[in-house]
Fold this sequence. Notes:
Pfam families: SnoaL_2. The chain is 27% helix and 30% strand. With 164 residues, the chain is of the alpha+beta class. The chain has one domain (3-129): Nuclear Transport Factor 2, Chain: A, CATH 3.10.450.50. The radius of gyration is 15 Å and the shape is globular.
Amino acid sequence: MRTADILTGLRDPAARAEALILHYFRMCNDADHAGLVDCFTPDAVHYFPPGLPGAPWRGAEAIADGWLWCVKTLGSRWTIEKILTGPQGREAVIEWTHWKTAVGEALRGDEWYVFNEGVTKIAEIRAYYASPVDKATPVNRLHEFDYEGRGYHMLPPSPPPTVE
């Protein structure tokens, strides 16, 4: 499904921003390269904390390539835990979990989104991790935060798709 199709009929900019984020995560979980590219402006940038090789990812193609690599190599699946959109829809913040099913890890964090004029594409994402990645810990998380008690996903949404 094209990004424009999911925005049809949504006039409220905040609703458009939320729908676009939800669609982006569906495209990540579906490992849909064309769908991912369609979520972004051509010159979009995805920033990450230090330590990720090749970061930041610059351009819609690079972002899509990066997430497909994660699905193929790490068995990546993603869940959104919370979404907060600004009333004008130009910015939003989410909490997410990145399930790395092939390596038995999970990483929690937040992302700040910036959208283009009209809130039809993602122009920028700034990712922040809940904690430094600890390879010895299967699920990286905030110390003593009750994820389960607050209704967070405790398992990936489904097995990853096969990526050729």
